[in-house]
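Quick sanity check, ATP-binding protein:
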Amino acid sequence: MDSVRSPDRPRAGSTIYGTPRGNPTGHGPAGRSGSTRQLTPADGQRAAPPIPVKIIVAGGFGVGKTTTVGAISEIDPLTTEAEMTSAGIGVDDPGSRSAKTTTTVAMDFGCVTIDRTLKLYLFGTPGQARFGFMWDDLARGALGALVVVDSSRLDDCYPAVDYFERARLPFVVAVNAFDGHVAHDLEQVRWALAIGQHVPLLTFDARDRLSVRDALLVVLDRALDRAIHDKQS
């Protein structure tokens, strides 16, 4: 798959919408059958809508969750950003490399159509611990999660990893490559976060649409593997 795009739409006037305009009976000009093929019920049916899949984008404060959702969403993402004030000094630390001036206080929301059969609905969680009470509601009905990590601030990532392990929700750990590099290699990150080999661990760029797409496809594969396992057990 080279790109993420919306499915092809039928052209206006196509018989996929039903009987062509100007000939509602499906017969010839004199009303005799045979001049024009009679449409069957199947001809008038539209293609089934894509299956909705809910994915959580989680992680610590300032790791790039809002950027991740915004980079790939095919709609203008819904955000609940509020200006950071002096009251957050010493409480909310976005990291020394961040120019962050706002913070998510409820959630981020976006969506992207993978193909004709599948559409992802992305819910980004707030990163601060004081908004943790919202995670249960946001995660309800989700099939998987993308845990975004800043490798220079691994301590901020433990709560998200612990949450999805306790919830038994399939998740993928994605290290955001700030400025094109990461502070530690992936095996060091895996050891520091104490995640098993069965949990996919990758690097990505939260600003790049195709990089985000590839990370989300890994989440889908992980969710599918879990569904197959649960069905067989």
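Posting the structure with no commentary besides this: Residues 1-36, 84-91 have pLDDT under 50 and may be disordered.
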